[in-house]
């Protein structure tokens, strides 16, 4: 059923013949034959191709760097959130009196505030320590140091300066003790 019509016979080929001759100029023929002999690209074309490839590579590198930076930011944010969640969970356990934790666990913002308070106290202490509040003790201490420097081989000669320093320290301790009570 129709099988005979769907097959093409090889005897029905049609051939068209060109009645007009085609001719090419010698320049075109020489250029085509030169390209067949040397299939390499010209230096100008090669430099254009190289520049294009370099530009594509540079664009791709920039794209990858942007992607890498965004992934890094996402990871840092996720880790920060995870750490804050852990700190909050640990602080909750510590406040409940869990046996697995010792002491209070604080988050980083509270710890930073505590560090600032301690730093301020240290600075106040250092500034108060800078001025000589007890000139008598400092004078006797300086006298002991000078005596030891003069008598390096005979430190026992400085016993009177040491006794004066001890007496000044005792007076300072008594003053401090009575000021507390």
From TrEMBL:
<feature type="region of interest" description="Disordered">
    <location>
        <begin position="88"/>
        <end position="107"/>
    </location>
</feature>
<feature type="compositionally biased region" description="Basic and acidic residues">
    <location>
        <begin position="1"/>
        <end position="17"/>
    </location>
</feature>
<dbReference type="InterPro" id="IPR012471">
    <property type="entry name" value="DUF1690"/>
</dbReference>
<keyword id="KW-0175">Coiled coil</keyword>
<feature type="region of interest" description="Disordered">
    <location>
        <begin position="1"/>
        <end position="49"/>
    </location>
</feature>
<dbReference type="Pfam" id="PF07956">
    <property type="entry name" value="DUF1690"/>
</dbReference>
<feature type="coiled-coil region">
    <location>
        <begin position="54"/>
        <end position="81"/>
    </location>
</feature>
<feature type="compositionally biased region" description="Polar residues">
    <location>
        <begin position="20"/>
        <end position="45"/>
    </location>
</feature>
<protein>
    <submittedName>
        <fullName>Uncharacterized protein</fullName>
    </submittedName>
</protein>
């Amino acid at each position: 059923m129709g099988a005979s019509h769907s097959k093409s016979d090889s005897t029905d080929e049609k051939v068209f013949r060109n009645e007009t001759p085609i001719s090419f100029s010698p320049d075109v023929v020489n250029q085509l034959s030169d390209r067949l002999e040397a299939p390499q690209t010209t230096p100008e074309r090669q430099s254009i191709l190289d520049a294009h490839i370099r530009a594509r590579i540079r664009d791709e590198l920039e794209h990858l760097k942007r992607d890498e930076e965004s992934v890094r930011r996402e990871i840092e944010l996720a880790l920060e959130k995870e750490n804050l969640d852990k700190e909050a969970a640990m602080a909750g356990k510590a406040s409940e009196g869990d046996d697995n934790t010792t002491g209070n666990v604080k988050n980083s913002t509270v710890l930073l505030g505590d560090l600032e308070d301690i730093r301020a106290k240290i600075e106040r202490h250092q500034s108060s320590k800078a001025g000589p509040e007890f000139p008598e003790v400092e004078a006797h201490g300086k006298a002991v140091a000078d005596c030891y420097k003069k008598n390096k081989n005979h430190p026992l000669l400085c016993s009177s300066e040491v006794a004066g320093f001890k007496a000044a320290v005792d007076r300072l301790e008594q003053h401090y003790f009575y000021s507390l009570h």
